[in-house]
Amino acid sequence: MASASVLPRSVVSPIGKHTASLIFLHGSGDTGAGIKSWIKLVLKQDLAFEHIKVIFPTAPAQPYTPMMSEMSHVWFDRYKISMDCPENLESVDSMCQTLTNLIDEETKSGIPKNRILLGGFSMGGAMAMHLAYRCHRDVAGVFALSSFLNKDSIVYKELKEVKYTLPELFQCQGDADTLVLPKWGEETSKVLKSLGVTTTFHGFPDMYHELSLAELQKLRAWILKKLPMETALTQER
């Protein structure tokens, strides 16, 4: 089981006053610096904002079962990359606590939970859904790119008991993805919607298990919708 009280991270600082934060979790085997560079390659610029700090943490290295237990930077271990298997809850829960420490860093710096977005690519998106829908249901929203939850996920079981408003979910999925099948993402969206989550699902023709310009542009617009500038609110104060 991996543990790291302070995760290394890459950060894109806001250009102006910091009033919101976004935590972007990489996919299995990657790093925070790696996905930050990948996004910059696709967008031709950093994922940067006037008021939002973008944090790209790196998962601790731990044995990863789908890679024959070789060490890899992953948010949690799993038995196989499939909807049809149990979740390794000990591994997932340990990382929920570690990432909670990162969220706490932001709230202690003065950023309220409703001004924090959680999300990620592939495994990072799954981790973000566990983190938000089980531990931090008061964040501004969640995004999951090329991601899914297991068929009998603990997330679904715990949400059955929730009666209040949940963070909105923004999903993107490549129709040509052969690693995370499109139907897995669609099923995740369908089940979460049935449990009270407002979901938006975007499919992208001919996109594999990757990031695309059109996808990142849609994501950027959604981020700004969920974390708008606070100019008017500041003036009222």
UniProtKB/TrEMBL annotation:
Belongs to the AB hydrolase superfamily. AB hydrolase 2 family. Keywords: Acetylation, Cytoplasm, Hydrolase. Pfam families: Abhydrolase_2. This is Lysophospholipase-like protein 1. The lineage of its organism: Eukaryota, Metazoa, Chordata, Craniata, Vertebrata. One of its GO terms (cellular component) is cytosol. Palmitoyl thioesterase that catalyzes depalmitoylation of CGAS and KCNMA1. Acts as a regulator of innate immunity by mediating depalmitoylation of CGAS, thereby preventing CGAS homodimerization and cyclic GMP-AMP synthase activity. Does not exhibit phospholipase nor triacylglycerol lipase activity, able to hydrolyze only short chain substrates due to its shallow active site. The gene is LYPLAL1. One of its GO terms (molecular function) is palmitoyl-(protein) hydrolase activity.
